[in-house]
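Practice problem 4.
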């Protein structure tokens, strides 16, 4: 990782990832409780992740509107 972050372009990409992706994953783990997937296979896990993300977005929308 140190070798990768020596490159300024890679450092910018890593900073952008920590600002966009990691908070969402943290909220899914904390608020939704998504620590493990209940199903097997890429398709099933993707569907479960999409369901959890939709639930998180609906919760955010509910809190934002009222």
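Answer key:
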């Amino acid at each position: 990782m140190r070798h990768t972050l020596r490159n300024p372009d890679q450092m910018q990409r890593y900073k952008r990832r920590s600002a966009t992706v990691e908070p969402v994953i943290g909220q899914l783990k904390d608020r939704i409780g998504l620590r493990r997937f209940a199903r097997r296979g890429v398709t099933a896990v993707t569907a479960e992740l999409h369901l959890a993300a939709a639930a998180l977005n609906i919760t955010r929308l509910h809190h934002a509107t009222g």
